[in-house]
Amino acid sequence: MISSAHARTVANLAAASCLALLLGACGGGMSLPSFSSSSPPPEAEPGTGPEMPATIRADEIVGRWGLASFQNPADRARTEAAARAQCKNPYVITAGSSGGVIMHLADQATPQELRLKGSPSGKNYIGPAGPTPGEQDREIVSFDGRVLITRFIDKDAATRYGNMVYVRCAPRA
User: Fold this and answer.
1) How far apart are CA 102 and CA 92, in angstroms?
2) CA–CA gap between residue 126 and residue 105 (Å, rounded)
3) Which residue ranges are recorded for the region named Disordered (predicted)?
4) Percent of the chain with pLDDT over 90
5) Which of 30, 55, 137, 141 counts the highest number of beta carbons within 10 A?
């Protein structure tokens, strides 16, 4: 027969185990089935409206570009020359199938289709669909048809990559 001291210990362990299971289920660690027959439609994020068109068209930035970057604005001219020298190994921006452009996001090895997005302030952005400016977007700081300068919105990416300077390469002969 089990002594009362052992019985109390076993009962305490069983109660603690049941309590741990119940608390774990409440914390999101375990998913319980839903008994409702339909789920409510997802709500739009507050404060986001329809995407505004950019004042720069995607076809204006499609092409071959020399690429370099700078942190200090005083280095811009030198960086443009360095980007021009990169045309022997250009960064190619192609047209996407949905009207965007194929480019890399920060820290992504595979390029993907990004959109050109406008904003009420008149600024233009390049980034995935979603709110403008989004964390993965880059702001188009300047664009004159020949030189495109962008800066990532994400502070960490902006610090690491600086101002990205794209200089249009001459057409291939």
Assistant:
1) 9
2) 9
3) 33-53
4) 69
5) 137
CA nearest to 84, candidates 64, 108, 54: 64
Q: Which two tokens stand for residue 2?
A: 């089990």
CA atoms of 133 and 7, how far apart (whole Å): 63
Q: Which residue carries 């300068």 as its tokens? A: 149
131-173 residue pLDDT tens: 999 999 999 999 999 999 999 999 999 999 999 999 999 987 5
In whole angstroms, give the CA distance from residue 106 to residue 81: 23
SS3 string, the chain, reads CCCHHHHHHHHHHHHHHHHHHHHHHHCCCCCCCCCCCCCCCCCCCCCCCCCEECCCCHHHHCEEEEEEEECCHHHHHHHHHHHHHHHHCCEEEEECCCCCEEECCCCCCCCEEEEEEECCCCCEEEECCCCCCCCCCEEEEEECCCEEEEEECCHHHHHHHCEEEEEECCCCC
120 burial level (CB within 10 Å; 0-12, 13-18, 19+): exposed
